[in-house]
Fold this protein.
Amino acid sequence: MKSVDLVIRGGSVVAPDRIVQASVAIADERIVAVGHDDVMPPAQREMRADGLFLLPGAIDSHVHFRDPGYPHKETWQTGSAAAACGGVTTVFDMPNTHPPTGTREALALKLKAAERSFCDYGIHALLGDDTVGHLEDLLDGGATSFKAFVGNTFGNLPAPTDGALLEGFEKLAPLGIRTVVHAENSSIMARRQKVMQDAGRHDAQAHLDARPAVAEIEAIGRVVTLAEWAGARLHIAHHSAADSLFLLRAAKARGVDLTVETCPQYLLLNTDDILRLGGILRVNPPVREPRHNQPLWDALMDGTIDMIATDHAPHTPEEKTRESIWACDCGFPGVETQMPLMLTQVNLQRATLMDYVKWSAVAPAKAWGLYGTKGVIAPGAHADIAFVDMNKTGTLSQGRLQTISKISPWHGRAVQGYPVHTLLRGRFVMQHGRLVEDAITHGRSVKGVQAMPAARPRNQEHYSSAIVTPPAGVRPNAWPEGMLR
Ligand code: NCD
Ligand code: ZN
C-alpha cells in the first residue's frame, strides 16, 4: 500500500449528524481515509489525538484583515495568524479596505497581501454604484463573492442605491454568486445619530439608540425583496435583532436562497456589557438589549440563522477608548476567540458539538460553494482540521491575541474548550496553541475550489404568485447534482 503523509489516530471526528471515533489519513493536502485504526495506510508520520475532537476547520464568512490600507490595525499576516490560532482555516475578507476592493487594481493589492497567509481565503469585492458595471471583471480578477454596505459603517463607503443593488443582483443571479449585505438603513441611522449628537449625547448607549432594530428590519425587508425578485443568492451579515427574524423565516419558507450569519457578540453580550465596556463594544450593528440573545440562539437551532461568523474588525486600543462614543471606531477582533467562546457554550449544553460544526463549517462551506472540499472531514476533502480539547480551561486575554489590535470585549472571560492544533491542507499552522511561523505562505485563495452554479432562474412569476410553495421543479436552496449536501 502506498504510504500517506500523516495518520491521526485516536481522535473523535465530528460531523453535523454524528461523532465517531476514527483515524484520519492525509496525503497531498487532502483526507484520503477516515475509519478504523486497523485499516489506515502506512504513513510517513503518525500522531495521536486521544481525547481530542477533530472538527472541520472553521470557515469565517466575515473578517476585516485591513490590508491594504490600515496596517496599524491589522495586516493579512497578523489577521490570518489569529485565524490559525483560533481553529479557523478559511476566511472571507471584506472590501472596506483602502482602496476599497472595487477595482481590479485594489483587488490585486489585496491578493498580493494575502500571499502571506496562514489560512485559506475568499475575497468579497465591493458591490456599489461605482462597481456594478464591472462585477464580472472583479470575478475574473479573483473575487469570490460580493459585499454591499447598505448600512453605514467603518470606511464610510456610500450605500448602494436600490437601483444599483437590484442591477447587481440581476447580474450575479445567473452566475450563482452570493452577495453579503450589511443590512441596516443608513438614512434612519444618520438622522438618529444627529438627533443624539444635537442633544449632547456622548455615552455608549447613544450608539444603540441611533441604530434601532427597525433599521435592520427595514433593510432586510428591502434587500430580500430585491434579491428574491432577481433570483439572486443573498447572505445577511452579522444578524443582531430578534425583531427581524420573522423576515428571514418568511423568506426562507418562500424558497429565497438566503443564508444568514450571527456573531458571538450578539448571542452572548447585551446592553449590560455596553455599560461595562463603553466604546470597546461599539460595533455595527450594535449589541442590543438582553431580550435579543435567546431568540438568536433559537434561530440558530431552527436553521433560520445558518452560521457563526465573527466580523473580526480590529481597531487599536487608542481608537477604541476615546472620550466620546462617536469618536470610537466600530468593531473589535473576534476570529481568534470565536471557537473557545462557542465551545464553552457547548460545554454548558446550550448546543451540541455537532450543531457547532454545522454553524462553523458546514453551512459556510455550502453558502460559498466549497462543501465537499471544505467543511467536512471525509475522503476527498482538504485536510483542514481543528483539533479541539473540550476540557481545556482558560481565560481569554487580549494581550495574548495574535491581532495587532490587542483590545477585546472578551478580555477576562473564562472559557472551556479550545482548539489546540490547526491543520490547513495537511500542514500544521498552529500546534499546542502556538503559531507555526514558517507556514506563513501556506494559505491560498478558494477561488479555484469554489463552484457556484447558477442560482434559481429569475422568476417574477414565482414572485407575483406569492408564494409559499415554489414552482414545480424548484427545490428551495437546492444544490445541484454532484455537490454533497
Ligand atoms: C466593521 C469594520 O470595522 O470594518 N465594523 C463593525 O462595526 N462591524 C465594518 C462592518 O462590518 O460593519
Ligand atoms: Zn458590517
Q: What stands out?
A: Residues 213-230 form the longest helix (18 residues).
